Amino acid sequence: MERSRRVAVLLVLLFLVSLSQSVYSQSTGMTGRSVTGCTCHSNSPSLSGSISGLPFGAGGYTPGATYSLSWDGGPHVSGEGGFNFDVSAGSWTNLGAYVQLSNGELTHSSDLARAWTADWVAPAAGTGDVDFTLAVLYANGNGANSGDEWGTGAWTLGEASGSGNNPPVASNVTFVPTSPTKGTGLGVSYDYYDADGDSEQGTQIRWVVDGLNVGALNDQMTVANSWLTRGQVWYCTVTVKDGSVQGTPVEIGPVTIGNTFPVARNLEITPEAPEDSDELRLDYDYYDNDGDPQQQSLIRWYLDGARIAELDDSDRVSALMIRGGDEWEASVTPHDGDDYGTTVWTGIVVIGSSNNPPTATAYISPVGNARTDDVLQVHVGWSDPDGDSIQATEIIWYRDGTRYSAFNDMTYVLDQSTAKGETWMAKARVNDGLMWSEWVETAEVDILNTPPEVTSIAMLPEGSLNTAMDLSLVWEQSDLDGDAEMNSQIHWWVNGDWIREYDGWTSIPASETIRDQSWSVQVIPGDGDDLGSSMKTLSRLIENGAPTVPIIALGNGAIGYLGALDGLPEAPTTPADSLNPLVVLAHASDLDEEPILFSVAWERNGFVVPDLDDEVLVPAERLEPGQVWTVTVTVNDHWGLSESAEAEIEIINLKPTPAWTTEPEGAIPGTFTTFDGSSSSDSDGRVVSWLWLIDGI
After folding, report:
1. Is there a smaller number of Cβ atoms within 10 Å at the N or the C end of the chain?
2. 513 and 495 in one domain?
3. What is the pLDDT of residue 213?
4. Which of 591, 602, 595 shows the shortest CA–CA distance to 563?
């Protein structure tokens, strides 16, 4: 096994028989005998020295780690005891009771104990094995060496190899505060760090005052005030631990407990309500946390705010120096012989004042609940039993329980400063020139939702209305609370009557309107919480509507037609020719269901044919192929409104019918034959030429 992982435990009991090797123990310690032991009490050892706290089971010591050790001689007789403990490397700290360090070795400082403790700090890495040697003596105290027992022990502890646990480190160790007094108390502050990320467990804190360990404060972060006295000198040692390994102890100090400033309190000028014949006396309590007596405290008197130097350090003012209406005040700066404390003041005493304070009342309008468009105004009333007039008024506003300083002493809060859901209240008090009244509170006022307002409304379309038009509503609304439009109500009115079946409609189809009706629309704006004030459009008359645009059909037929759709004959044929009359079929209607009049105008090749006005048929004899005929149909109602439409058609040319004869009738080869096409015909004109194809040529 490697040396670094070897733990050798060797217990050596030395049997010393030679008197020349004996060493006499002492009640205040001995050194140099941790190996040989003490033979002056007995020639042979009878005890087995033992040590606990060394990391034998952990593979050896961790360099730099701190180990808490305890040792004794095992079972023993009653009486006195001593020891000599030496180690080949490392250092000692936190020595226990009756343990002292002498010549680099540990030994007893008194023979009153038979078990001892100390902390051993392991040496640096690379030291290797460390030897521990211990000699223990238990004496029975009879003054002779008979009945005494002693023994020795020796141990070797190897250095751990590749230990996964590094000792933690304490840094920034300081006293808190850095200049403590009995009044501030004393504490220690430090930063804990562990390279392995181990949490802090088992840290030791040791306090020393004026050279003495204070065991009652072991592991305490703070020192109670009862332990502190001015002039004490304190040290503190912090040894952090991660549960298994201690770090290097860090000692801070010295720090001296300083003087606590004295305090003056419960200042009072008597009598409480002095007249101009009374002597003023100043009473106060002096207190010093360190118990120091008062010495040369400063007393200052002030009349109407000005210091009266001749009264410095006097605790009274003669009646000869005061007058009715004077305002006197005193201050005390306590002194304990070393330091001055904080200056404290009495209240102002008014001489000869029999004044009674006024009383105040207050309320906010509007009373109860307000809306966001309301200005809040506080009304402050008052009365004074002495008949004094009010010289000053103080007002404090609160919004949702929090003071709103921007409105201090203002009697109103503008609506721009309030919002829906807030709760407002005010406090007020009045002053009669000498005294203030008690504060009075108003009742709370809840800011409720402000309904929206309609800012504009219109019924479209603009201009004249008739039964051919759809009606529609547009409106705009504003809301002080910034709420969006929601749940607004829409009402339509016809001839002054509310037509409920149209409620909520934003448009009315033309089919619902009748000529001579008067229409208007009303909007009651909503924001989801409340409805605001309504706004209504002016009534608008549904006027006469023009007839519909006539629908025209143009072509050959026997009869023409002007009238309603339900009487329309069969449609004319197209394309139109010159063999049959040209007729126009037109139908239209009136939205107001009134009679309508038709008029017809014809054009031929762009020229008006006035003799055909209002005719629905053009005779065939007036038609020729290639002509372009245009008809315009106008529909009029009795109110002078009209609509018109036109249609155009071209008279087509019909094909001629070919016919021919030959002479002689039978063609004879070698003879002259005549072919004659003059028998061909054309129904809408005459044949002017013909062409022959013989054998395709």
Report:
1. C
2. yes
3. 93
4. 595
The CATH number given to whatever domain includes residue 439 is 2.60.40.10
Number of H helices, E strands in the chain: 0, 53
Beta bridge partners of 285: 265
Worst-scoring range by mean pLDDT, 12-26, 70-84, 112-126, 506-520?
12-26
Q: What does the alpha-carbon distance between residue 141 and residue 668 come to, in Å, rounded to a whole number?
A: 188
Cα separation of 471 and 459, whole Å?
Answer: 7
**Inter-residue contact 150 to 46 (CB < 8 Å):** yes
Q: Is the pLDDT of residue 87 over 70?
A: yes
pLDDT band, residue 481 (cuts 50/70/90): confident
Rg (CA), the chain: 63
Tell me: do 144 and 10 sit in the same domain.
yes
- pLDDT of 521 above 90: yes
- Report the alpha-carbon distance of residue 463 to residue 192 in Å, rounded: 88
11 and 149 fall within a common domain: yes
Minimal CA–CA distance to 600: which of 639, 558, 629, 573?
629
Quote the number of domains for the chain: 6
**Same domain assignment for residues 312 and 205:** no
Domain carrying residue 461: 453-543
**Closest by alpha carbon to 350, among 329, 331, 327?**
327
Residues 322 and 443 in one domain: no
H/E segment holding residue 9: strand 8-10
My answer on whether 18 and 121 are in the same domain is: yes
Q: Which of 296, 293, 188 is nearest to 249 (CA)?
A: 188
Bridge-based pairing state of the strands 445-448 and 423-431? antiparallel
Answer yes or no: do 76 and 150 share one domain: yes
pLDDT in tens, 254-275: 999 999 999 999 999 999 888 8
pLDDT higher than threshold 70 for residue 41? no
Measure the CA–CA gap between 328 and 347, rounded to whole angstroms. Answer: 8
| CA dist., res. 319 & res. 313, Å (int) | 17
Cβ distance 70 to 115 under 8 Å? yes
Q: Which two tokens stand for residue 307?
A: 């210091």
Better pLDDT: 528 or 356 = 528
Q: 462 φ, ψ to 5°? A: -75, 165
